[in-house]
Amino acid sequence: MKQYSLSILVLIIFSACQSKPQQDDWVTNSLNQAREQLAYAVQMLDDTLSYPRSVNPDGSLHLVEASDWTSGFFPGSLWYMYEYTRDPKWEDQARRWSAGLAEQQHNRGTHDIGFMLYCSFGNGYRLTGDQEYRAILLEGARSLASRYNPRVKAIRSWDWARNRWSFPVIIDNMMNLELLFWAARESGDQSFYDIAYNHALTTMNNHFRNDFSSFHVVDYDTISGAVRKQETFQGHADESAWARGQAWGLYGYKFCFRETRDPRFLEQAEAIALYYLNHPNLPEDKVPYWDFDAPGIPDEPRDASAAALVASALLELSDYTNTHREEYLQAAEAMLKSLSSPAYLATPGSNQGFILKHSTGYKPVNSEVDKPLNYADYYYLEAMLRYREKKEQTSL
Predict the structure, then answer these.
(1) Biggest alpha carbon distance in the chain?
(2) Which sequence positions are flagged as catalytic?
(3) Could you tell me the pTM of the whole model?
(4) Per-residue confidence band for 338, with pLDDT thresholds at 50, 70 and 90
(5) Apex CA 278: angle with CA 274 and CA 284, to 5°?
């Protein structure tokens, strides 16, 4: 009888051990498929100074230089693949593709240093502790901080179209603050923290409407610091809710709370999240149309990049709240399951090596519409790794 009971116990334990991998097959399968696709992309590419961004209208690969705002996402994806596999071959590739970005640490002509350096060297430093990467990141933070205006209390975004804007600040710029918060911790220089904190407050006060949707661009007077105008440059209309803009804001305020513990930033992140999740025009699969107010819904293009961003943000945001924790986790899981389905996840060897299909870059000028985008891939991998980690720690 004892032997029979022991056999049953062993069978139960074995079944339990087997059931979890089966339940999580979609996670492992999707990450492995992404690995195959990244391997295909690396195999296609010869020049590590030309970075894959998207696909051209003729179907060819759209490559950009290191100075492009998206240049850090492909190396960042390689770092995430190294984190997933711990295969030194992926570390080698990530280092190769990051190396060409090193000179951007001195680039004071862009606010996108965070995207370019923190997604590449930031992940590299986190995973390897390479001191050269640390030095690059700190110099990059100094370059970013040079764009701060103490009168406006924000970091300038674009330098072009000076006849249209005096001191434009875009919602995307929230994402670059993470580099400054990191630099403050790493160096002990309080000025990095103060700049990031002030920028987040200024954006919170002026970018958001009463329903917590956001404008894309706010222009400021450099003398008085007052708001000159509010626009939604990449969205359908100035008063519309451009989907990726909402995602940038949500992602930014969740890490602003993490870094400062200021409850206002948590309240802001949660308000944006609830606006997004409860919007009547959010499709059933939770991959948004490019703009929540686009006139042709349901025939408007989707934006997988926004879904990937929001999924990643919600997974972290769930750690900071009890009230909506389950709602955030369930929504993130639904988004990732959609993005991991054949409708969005590219078959290895297709899609010019990009992982996800159906993103939208800049619809009003018909640029990168219903195309793959490197930042969609980056935030998808980030979200999937966060989800996988949560599954391992808890029964999500």
Answers:
(1) 88
(2) 112, 172
(3) 0.94
(4) very high
(5) 130
